[in-house]
Amino acid sequence: GAVVSQHPSRVICKSGTSVKIECRSLDFQATTMFWYRQFPKQSLMLMATSNEGSKATYEQGVEKDKFLINHASLTLSTLTVTSAHPEDSSFYICSASRQGRSYEQYFGPGTRLTVT
Amino acid sequence: AQSVAQPEDQVNVAEGNPLTVKCTYSVSGNPYLFWYVQYPNRGLQFLLKYITGDNLVKGSYGFEAEFNKSQTSFHLKKPSALVSDSALYFCAVRVGNNAGNMLTFGGGTRLMVKP
Question: I need a surface site. Which of A1, A52, B51, B61 has the fewest CB within 10 A?
Answer without folding.
Answer: A1
